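Good day; I would like, with your permission, to put a structural problem before you. What I wish to show you is a protein chain and, alongside it, a tokenised description of its three-dimensional fold. Thank you for your consideration; the sequence and its tokens are set out here:
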Amino acid sequence: KLSLALQFLRYLTNGDVPSVLPLVTYIRQKTLMPNIRSSEMLVEGDILLPETRNSLVCPSNKCFWKKSSNGLVQVPYVVSTDFSSLDMDVITNAMASFRKKTCIRFVPRTVEPDYISIKSLDGCYSAVGKTGGAQVLSLNRNGCVYHGIVEHELNHALGFYHEHTRSDRDNYVRINWQNIDPAMQSNFNKENTNNLNTPYDYSSVMHYGNTAFSINGMDTITPIPDALVAIGQRVELSTIDVKRIKILYEC
């Protein structure tokens, strides 16, 4: 008899539950796999590129959500009716993690002009930061509705990029270009990032896994100097993820 957890997992993934891969690895892979078929213009695998500006540049605080006089940062959202009640539990629980640990408050939209529109489209992806108007955050029901993946995409919407693209990443990981699908190599480009005076975080929910976009099953990202350090978890915001949110939004 299936456990409730496995029944729930099969429900979320339309029965596509592997018998060999560890659950965490499976969920991590699910972040990028649906996006290969996406018709959207994506960078770094799951970042939606707005037509109005370069998504890798944030010239002013207009790219971030405004802090209220009460010290809280309200991020309005709407959710498509495509999601089931179980899906909604996963989504709202992920939002609650930000509420418990930071000054971020995801709130149902009323009349706010800028908000996140959560839909079940062809992948798991989000724009980075506030783009203005209704900005799409996609959580495909058949692969993206997991706690850590929802947190990952919401964190993009708050203004955070992938950990492996940090400006100082070469001190902490080796990119194995020979193992990366040539069409996907741009997803590993190093960026000129603001690291908020925080250390490189192997445990970040924003870090790619070892074999992301691999063409041969071998590692595309290898931690250094210890290649056995775990990367790519999609379970929960790390301690440093939370610290960065607090620094960026002055919680």
Q: What stands out?
A: The chain has five helices and nine strands. Helices lie at 4-12, 23-32, 85-101, 147-158, 239-248. The domain at 161-250 is CATH 3.40.390.10 (Collagenase (Catalytic Domain)).
